[in-house]
Amino acid sequence: MQPTPTVTVGLGPVSFEEVVRVARSGASVELSDESLAVIADSRTRIQELADDPKPVYGVSTGFGALASRHIPQELRTQLQRSLIRSHAAGSGAEVEAEVVRAMMLLRLSTLATGRTGVRPQVAEAYAGMLSAGLTPVVYEYGSLGCSGDLAPLAHVALAIIGEGQVRTAEGELLPAGEALAVAGMEPITLAEKEGLALINGTDGMLGMLVLALDDLDALVKLADLAAAMSVEGLLGTDRVFAADLQALRPHPGQAVAAENMVRVLADSAIVASHRGPDCARVQDAYSLRCAPQVAGAVRDTLAHARTVAARELASAVDNPVVTLDGRVESNGNFHGAPVAYVLDFLAIVVADLASISERRTDRFLDVARNHGLNAFLADDPGVDSGHMIAQYTQAAIVSELKRLANPASTDSIPSSAMQEDHVSMGWSAARKLRRAVDGLTRVLAIEILTAARGIDLRAPLTSSPATAAVIAALRQEVPGPGTDRYLAPEIEAAVRLAASGTLVAAAESATGPLS
Description:
Its main location: cytoplasm. The structure is a single chain. By secondary structure, this protein is mainly alpha-helical. It is built from 20 helices and 9 strands. 55% of the residues lie in helices and 5% in strands. 51% of the residues are buried. The mean pLDDT is 93.
């Protein structure tokens, strides 16, 4: 395997692909010489204000509702250390390493703009930890998504001052000071403004948005594949997916989804078997006929979310911020509303994409709607239950996804003695979207598992080359139709194949790359 290329963080934004490489592939990180020079230059302005007797928020004052107190120079090192310690107040389960790495990279990207006023060695400490594979332990609860993802980012900052805990690249839990020493790094003593600069950003929720977009780009292809297999196995028609029909309603995502389905169904003997004039069926149910309309709308929502994420990746979020002309100004750019809204929007479309998938699965199991297949696709209905309870599992997940689709961003709990009286809850929106993405993967995997069984039962009619390739990949781990077996391991095998991209890759071996 080729090593993952190093990501260079400079004055411009990091890309979606770079975030994913650092978060998921363990890519190392370096700072450009240009960014190090700009960081050093803006630090001189902060130092000037630190030496000025006039109070400046974040430099020589307390924080939040305590901003009215001027802090003398001899207490400012303690001020920064106290800020990080007190704000590292998370609780709950550990946040996944990929999320923490994404969050660290995005905070480093803001530091690299020179708009935060930190010293170069602070930024280099973040790059060093990422490159060494050291991931601070961050806990699930603690961020309101306003004034930055404060608690999660504080747990990261705690590690660079040599406190708290980190996990190594191998997952070993170590005290941060010990881990830094093993990596050849020294703890950082934070100076004026630096503690605040490390915790005042939307980096946690944005990192999770970028990772979710990466996941969902793959899952919309899987959804088209699943829908096409269900159309095939349920003796549906591919005529409704014709390009000229889709062009009558020119949503771009809809056209892409329909084209994918047409390509998956190409040369299917099952579809051709009921295409003639003697077929008495007029039109398919909505869950089959309208699959491109739903999956297409999901794609268009993803495009909107990607636009918002790109703008946020290009942002320098901090308060106060060092402007290009050298002013140090308070602002509200840390508010997570733009990111929170699209995170919630994505949870809605994930729930609906899973919902239509579950409806197609249910059609396979009902003798009144599956056009000649056994009840529940069972080998001997009554003795065997077939996929009856697999659909129950789908339904349970879909119900959970509907609950997760309730927006977090409509909630707000005031904090900091009413100074921070409206918050975004963007971190919470991101956490529930991660659970939703996992649920969608499972629902689609069960649909494909069921559709494959239904298609096998159409023998001697043969499926399309794309579907045949998918079923062959599935049959490497899951046997074909037969008497009842322990079903949970088969579902988990299908989920692994779905999540890894194996099933889509199998289809693409026949269709070429799907869009």
